[in-house]
Design a protein that fits this description.
Two copies of one chain form a homodimer. The first copy, chain A, has 233 residues and is α+β, with helices and mostly antiparallel strands. The first copy, chain A, has two domains: 6-78, Winged helix-like DNA-binding domain superfamily/Winged helix DNA-binding domain (Arc Repressor Mutant, subunit A, Orthogonal Bundle); 102-223, no CATH class. The first copy, chain A, is built from eleven helices and eleven strands. Chain A has a three-stranded antiparallel beta sheet. In chain A, helix 2 crosses helix 3 (34-41) and helix 3 (34-41) crosses helix 4. The A-B interface holds A 2, 4-21, 23-24, 58-60, 75-76, 78-79, 81-83, 85-96 and B 2, 4-21, 23-24, 58-60, 75-76, 78-79, 81-83, 85-97. Chain B binds a DNA duplex (30 and 30 nucleotides) through residues 16, 18, 33-35, 43-51, 53, 67-70.
DNA sequence: TTCATACTTCGATCATAGCCGAAGCATCGA
DNA sequence: TCGATGCTTCGGCTATGATCGAAGTATGAA
């Protein structure tokens, strides 16, 4: 932190792969524990702890102690905004790898974003849920009455979701698509339920593969625009 | 450049003090030689050469050879935008030095952001243009019919702007103010016209100084709320 | 109290990359 | 052709900092 321009110290913090992983993991606004972030970044607990201390000291993150856990989240939307701008720049300047292998295509189609569905399918889910009036709001999402009924039918214990500290609905910006998908406790519960229903399987890494009936069920439930009731009954 | 998120490689480039110095020096949109940038960054020629090669390889800069000189400039306005966003974040999180010198005050008042007006004046311009109904929209800005007439009167060739690939209007977040100012092709054309009109002079670095008539003209044109026509005729 | 979990701190290792001196190209002017 | 200027490349030095094992601290559970 010599006399150089102020941006260098901040940018250097974002420039380490482990820290960048941590920050992008937190981009949906949730608060995660040190261990969860260590796993997400692919480093050991003590390494992550060091990184988090630095990010905290720089006020990019805020910590919240709860029992023996320490939850970290981004200190504000401006942090996420800078990260997003950097992603855009990285894409425009071609820092993204050229060869778009089959794995990348699979990743774009459907993947896990921490614990909920992301990628094309994730974006489609939220768009469909909005069109059917299950979820309301642009940035701050909320379940409608109709949505409560629908997801209860779908097999989700809404009462349990309400009890956790975690927000039920959360808009999470998708890096491959340019729209939001559904995060939060509900997003996690939906993915979990979809796995139980054998609609989708976790493949290597973050990739998710839909089964045949999974595609059918998913499209009937979420991406059908015409009839907005009478599903999943 | 391991498998980490794409932002890390870009951010790491911005994270070195010498490179950050180079980039912020180029933020006014000019093209400078290797030696000039080496001096600005406070490193030797060969060190600067290495940094510039990296920035060039990452497409953050573009090089232009002219005789035995090599001129570098930012590869686009989006680079400047990211740098501004980083400055804002650095300031908000307290990475900025405490002492706010007189030069900083001048910078806050009016400066060049890549090729358009930024600082208090820049924010005032966009705010005024919005209030007068010259420009519409919150995030995605657009010229209104009234705006077209106004800026044509002001001396700007709107047809020429439309021809370039660059967006005509662009909201660009200001790091010193907390509001947007006007970027894009129109923003650049306005600044250029204001310099032609001798409303404003480029001082050292990115600082812009308004002349007396410049202040008058500017306030009459943009920051007057009451009468929304009959300017710049 | 005792153990387990979650996290932090310490210490040592190691790789990366910034830095500059020296030498090598390339272009310009004479 | 020759030297001067602008820039690049090479090689070696050095500092920084990322990493993890091991040990230490705090909280919760039994």
């Amino acid at each position: 932190m010599k006399e150089g321009p102020v941006i260098a110290s901040v940018a250097a913090l974002l420039g380490d792969p482990a820290r960048a992983n941590i920050l992008t993991t937190l981009m949906d606004g949730r608060a995660l524990t040190v261990s969860e972030l260590a796993e997400a970044a692919g480093v050991t607990l003590q390494t992550a702890s060091g990184h988090l201390a630095k990010l905290d000291a720089a006020n990019l993150l805020v910590a919240e102690k709860q029992g023996r856990h320490r939850y970290f989240r981004l200190s504000g939307p401006d942090v996420a905004q800078v990260l997003e701008a950097l992603m855009g720049l990285a894409q425009r300047t071609g820092a993204t790898r050229v060869r778009t292998g089959p794995k990348d295509a699979a990743l774009r189609s459907a993947r896990v974003c921490y614990d909920h569905l992301a990628g094309e399918r994730g974006v489609a889910l939220l768009r469909g849920a909005r069109q059917q009036g299950l979820i309301d709001g642009e940035k701050d999402l909320a379940l409608t009455e109709k949505g409560r009924a629908f997801f209860a039918d779908f097999g989700i214990d809404l009462a349990a979701l309400g009890k956790s500290r975690r927000p039920v609905c959360r808009a999470c910006l998708d890096w491959s698509e340019r729209h939001s998908h559904l995060g939060g406790a509900l997003g996690a519960a939906i993915l979990s339920e979809m796995i139980d229903k054998k609609w989708v399987r976790r493949a290597a890494g973050r990739v998710l593969t839909f089964t045949c009936e999974g595609v059918e069920g998913f499209e009937a439930a979420f991406t059908s625009i015409q009839n907005t009731s009478s599903q999943a009954a």
